[in-house]
């Protein structure tokens, strides 16, 4: 979903290669994360890529609250698209979170 149309599937093994070939850069500071950046999930033990989503932006945790969360949209198999805080993903996708951008 992050790299192609909603009807296209990209194998997990290809994600790191796509990030490299398309010249995505790691976003090092949370304050620099912007809508449209990619949030990626990597296995902490093996270092393997697990999942990718697209950053939607910062939203209040509760309406009127000063506490905000960064939200993303991603797709999990046939279960469709899911809007979620970036630190809430299905079992097996949690681990190291990295954000990448193609901004220049």
Structure characterization notes:
The chain is mostly beta strands. It contains one helix and six strands. The two termini are 22 Å apart.
Largest sheet: 6 strands, antiparallel
Structural class: mainly beta
Q: What would you report as the Rg, rounded to the nearest angstrom?
A: 14 Å
Strand content is: 35-45%
What is the first-to-last residue Cα distance?
22 Å
Counting DSSP E segments of at least 2 residues, the number of strands comes to 6
Mean pLDDT: 85
Number of domains: 1
Strand order of the largest sheet: 1-6-2-3-4-5
Low-confidence stretches are none
Helix content: under 10%
Give the topology string: H per helix, E per strand: HEEEEEE
Count of DSSP H/I helices: 1
Q: Please state the overall shape, judged from the principal axes of the Cα atoms.
A: globular
Notable traits:
about 100 residues; globular; about 35% strand; mainly beta; about 5% helix
How is this structure best summarized?
This protein is mainly beta and 104 residues long.
Fold topology:
Layout: H1 15-21, E1 25-26, E2 38-42, E3 49-60, E4 68-75, E5 81-85, E6 96-101
Antiparallel strand pairs: 1-6, 2-3, 2-6, 3-4, 4-5
């Amino acid at each position: 979903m992050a790299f192609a149309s909603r009807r296209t599937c990209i194998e997990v093994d290809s994600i790191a290669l796509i990030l490299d070939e398309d010249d995505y850069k790691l976003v090092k500071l949370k304050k620099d994360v912007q809508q449209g950046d990619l949030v990626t999930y990597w296995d902490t033990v093996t270092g393997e890529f697990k999942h990718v989503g697209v950053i939607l932006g910062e939203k209040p945790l509760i309406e009127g609250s000063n506490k905000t969360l960064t939200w993303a949209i991603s797709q999990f198999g046939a279960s469709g698209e899911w809007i979620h805080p970036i630190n809430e993903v299905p079992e097996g996708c949690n681990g190291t979170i990295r954000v990448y951008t193609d901004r220049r």
